[in-house]
Amino acid sequence: MTESLSRLIEMSRSVRATAAQQEEQRRSFAFGNTALENPRITREMVDEQAESLARE
Fold first, then answer.
1. Which residues span the domain enclosing 38?
2. Domain-embedded: residue 25
3. Can you give the pLDDT at residue 18?
4. CA quadruple 35, 47, 29, 43: dihedral positive or negative?
5. How far, in Å, are 16, 41, 44 from residue 47 at the CA level?
6. Residues 48-52: what's their mean pLDDT?
7. How far apart, in whole angstroms, are the C-alpha atoms of residue 31 and residue 12?
8. Whole-model pTM above 0.85?
9. Is residue 1 scored above 80 in pLDDT?
10. How many distinct structural domains can be found in the chain?
11. Domain for residue 13, yes or no?
């Protein structure tokens, strides 16, 4: 591993995602995995379901 890559990895260890960034990542993960199984799934569908779950 190069020195610059090692330095970047070390710097990234102190970075903390905000709640909004974590939610965005969760939705992206859900979309990516479900769209592989069913190409009719849209990002909008994932967003709608996430909003519905958040209201419960």
1. 18-55
2. yes
3. 96
4. positive
5. 23, 11, 5
6. 96
7. 25
8. no
9. no
10. 1
11. no
By CB atoms closer than 10 A (0-12, 13-18, 19+), residue 50 is: middle
Tell me if 41 sits within 8 A of 35, measured CB to CB.
Answer: yes
Q: Scanning the structure block, which residue is given the tokens 């965005």?
A: 24
Buried b (16+ CB within 10 A) or exposed e, 4-43: eeeeeeeeeeeeeeeeeeeeeeebeebbeebeeeeeebee
> Which are the contacts of 47, defined by CB distance < 8 A and separation ≥ 6?
27
With tokens 């939705």, the residue in question is 27
**Portion of the chain with pLDDT greater than 90, in percent:** 95
SS (H, E, C) 35-56: HHHCCCCCHHHHHHHHHHHHHC
- According to the model, what pLDDT value does residue 22 have? 96
